[in-house]
Design a protein that fits this description.
This protein is mainly alpha-helical. The protein has a two-stranded antiparallel ribbon. It has 4 helices and 2 strands. The two termini are about 35 Å apart. The protein has one domain: Multidrug-efflux Transporter Regulator, Chain: A, Domain 2, CATH 1.10.1660. It is elongated and about 55 Å long.
Length: about 100
Amino acid sequence: MHSEYTTSLTLVDACHTIGLESQEVFEIIEYGIITPDGESPDDWRFDVRMISTAKRALRLQRDLHLEWSAVALVIELLDEREQLRAENAMLSRRLERFLHGN
């Protein structure tokens, strides 16, 4: 039997895990880099994907000395590039099957 297990963190735990102060987490939320579940900071929950995205954002911000608004744009463009690559790979496979009749 397969059961799905999802971990979520509170704001305090997320800050510790990401390596940011709460004010910085508020900023990355404000710029739409991550969107926690919950209505208020006391209720917010951060899943593994959000933590990963926040860590990625932090690396970009520190390594490239970017403002959070620029980080949000860079992440959006990188995600779009990955989506386009996946779509291109799928279309290439379909074209290959079409051309070779498989």
